[in-house]
Amino acid sequence: MIQPARHLTGETTVPGDKSISHRAVMFGALAEGQTRITGFLPGADCLSTVQCMRQLGVTIDQLSPTELIVHGVGLHGLKEPEDVLDAGNSGTTTRLLLGILAGQPFHITLTGDASIRRRPMGRVTEPLREMGAVIDGRENGRLAPLSIRGSRLSALRYDSPVASAQVKSAVLLAGLSAEGGSAVREPKPSRDHTERMLLAFGVDVRTTDDGYITVPPGSTLRATDVDVPGDISSAAFLLAAAAILPGSDLIIRNVGINPTRTGILDALREMGAEIDLQNERTSGGEPVADLRVRGRELRGITIGGSLIPRLIDEIPVLAVVATQAAGVTEIRDAEELKVKESNRIATTAAELRKFGAVVEELLDGLRITGRTRLRGGAEIETYHDHRIAMAMSVAGLVADGATTICDWESVDVSFPGFGDLLASFDKQTT
Ligand SMILES: O=C(O)C1=C[C@@H](OP(=O)(O)O)[C@@H](O)[C@H](O)C1
Ligand SMILES: C=C(OP(=O)(O)O)C(=O)O
C-alpha cells in the first residue's frame, strides 16, 4: 500500500547497478584470478547470474549481500552443468550467457520465467549462429528454453538492427573465443558497461572510426576488483518522486553517471527539474556522482532518437512524471519497450489510466497530457514487472489517496528495500 507523501528530503543511497553487477560476476568468472566485488546488487536478477555461474563450475563466495569473491576459471575453464540453467526474470543473464556459452565445448539448456520465455532471443541466437554456434529452442531458437552445444566459432562483423547492450555484449563475449577478431556496430549507442569492464579486465576493446566495437580473439581476462556504483535506473524512481513533489530536496549518493545511462537526467532537466551533480569521480572505469534533486514546476517535452537507449528502463517512471508536467509529453522511437519484462507501452498506459491520467498509446511510445490530479484508490497490476511496480508507486506518492500495488515482490528483481525506503520518506514528510 502506497500512501501519498508531501515531499522527499534528506540523503540516501540506492542499491548497486544491475548491469554492472551481472557483468562483474560473469567477467570475474571468465578471468584468471580472484575478483572481489563490492556494492553488488543482491537483487533477484543478479542472483540468477550468480546461480548460473555456480552451476557452470565457478566458486563464488558471498561474504555479505553486497560483497562477493569470484574465483575465476579462465575463458576455457567453465564446466558442463548437471542441470538446466535458470535465468529467472533476467534478460541480461539470458542473453549475455548465450554469448559466453556459444563457444564452450559442452551442452547447456537455458530457460527463465514466463516473461523470459516470451522475450525475443533471435536477436542474439541469429548472430551467434552466424558465428557457428549450434543453438536450438522453441520457434527455431527464437524463444527460451534454448539449448546450446558449444562449438568452434568464427569471427563476425555484425551490424545489429537494434540498439541493445545485451545483443552487443553477447556478440563481443562470443568473439572472445572466436577465431579472428569480431566487431559489432549498433544503430544508436546503448550502454557501454561491457566495453568498459572488459578493458578493466585487460581486454583490448576498441571502437573503429566507422563505429564498430572490436574485441581481439583469444584474449585473457585478468581479475580485477569491481566496486559497483549505485544504479541510476533505481535512483530514477527517487529522482522522479522528488521532481514531482514540490518542496523536495533529496541527495542520492554514489550513483553511476555513465553517459550512456544519463538520459533520465537530461529529460527531467528539460522538464524543469533541478538536478545537480556533486563529488564527480571515476571508479573502476565508470563515472560516479552524488545527485541532488529539487522539486520544481514541470513542463511536457518530446523525446525520441538517440536519447531513448539512454533512458530505456526509466520510461515508465518518466511517464508518471509527465502526468505532473504542464502540457503534452511525447515519447517516440521506443518500440523496444514492448519486449521488456512486460509490454511497457501497454502496461504503463493501462496502469496510469487507473489513476485518471490522460495517456495515449502510440505504436512506438506514449503521449501523456498533464497536469492531472491523480486519484487515490487505484489497484495496480504489475504484470510481474519491477519497473511497473516502482513507477506506479511513485504515482501513488502524488495520488490523493492510498494506492494498492499487487505482486509487490517483483521489486526485488532490481531494488530490494525499495518499499522500506519509500516508507522512511513518508515518515519524514507527514
Ligand atoms: O545490458 C544490460 O545490462 C541491459 C540492457 C538493456 O536491455 P537491451 O539490451 O535489451 O536494450 C536494459 O533494458 C536492461 O535493463 C539491462
Ligand atoms: C529490461 C530490464 O532488464 P533485463 O532485460 O535484464 O530483464 C530492466 O531491468 O528493466
TrEMBL record:
Binding annotation for phosphoenolpyruvate: 18, 91, 119, 166, 344, 387
Location(s), subcellular: Cytoplasm
Source lineage: Bacteria, Bacillati, Bacillota, Bacilli, Bacillales
Protein name: 3-phosphoshikimate 1-carboxyvinyltransferase
Keyword Cell wall biogenesis/degradation (UniProt): no
Subunit structure: Monomer.
Catalytic residues (positions): 313 (proton acceptor)
Enzyme class: transferase
InterPro entries to which the protein is assigned, alphabetical: Enolpyruvate_Tfrase_dom, Enolpyruvate_Tfrase_sf, EPSP_synthase, EPSP_synthase_CS, RNA3'P_cycl/enolpyr_Trfase_a/b
SUPFAM superfamilies documented for this protein: EPT/RTPC-like
Gene responsible for this protein: aroA
